[in-house]
Specification:
This protein is of the alpha+beta class. Helices cover 33% and strands 36% of the residues. A hairpin with a 2-residue loop joins strand 7 and strand 8.
């Protein structure tokens, strides 16, 4: 099972994880990551944009890559767009596998991709103005471990 959604609405992570394993006896582990908007340095909101269709295809290609590296039984990726305020959920990555090691590794690989390469544009909003977020060198360095 594979689910990739880009949406403005919030999501229910528990329900999404239950859906991955529903009716399956071979799922031994589900690893999930939920990312939240941080309210650091006076951040009042984060506005996210994407190209509908293209973003989903790009994410799907990275799920394909994860499936060649690990024995994945199911994947759910939900990424929110629009205006989000500190404390709101922004992303869910959930991966099911027979064993936890594969689920952990695939979830980390997919999250590193979303953080550094996925076609989203983020604008931080503060009382002092708005700035577009550039990728961080530290995130890029972490993602290099997955290069082949």
């Amino acid at each position: 099972m594979r689910t990739i959604r880009i949406q403005a609405e919030d999501f229910d992570a528990t329900a999404e994880c239950e859906t991955i394993a529903a009716g399956r006896g071979d799922v031994g582990a589900i690893v999930s990551f939920i990312g939240l908007v941080r309210g650091e340095d006076g951040l009042t909101a984060l506005a996210l944009q994407h190209y509908p269709g293209m973003t989903e295809r790009e994410i799907a290609s990275h799920v394909d890559e994860a499936e060649t590296r690990w024995p994945i039984l199911g994947t759910t990726i939900i990424h929110r767009v629009g205006r989000l305020v500190p404390g709101e959920r922004i992303v869910l990555v959930a991966v099911a596998s027979t064993h936890r090691a594969a689920a952990f590794a695939a979830a980390e690989f997919l999250m590193d991709y979303l953080k550094t390469r996925a076609p989203f544009w983020k604008q931080e909003q503060r009382g002092t103005g708005r700035i577009w977020v550039e990728s961080k060198e530290s995130d890029e360095n972490v993602a290099l471990r997955w290069a082949r």
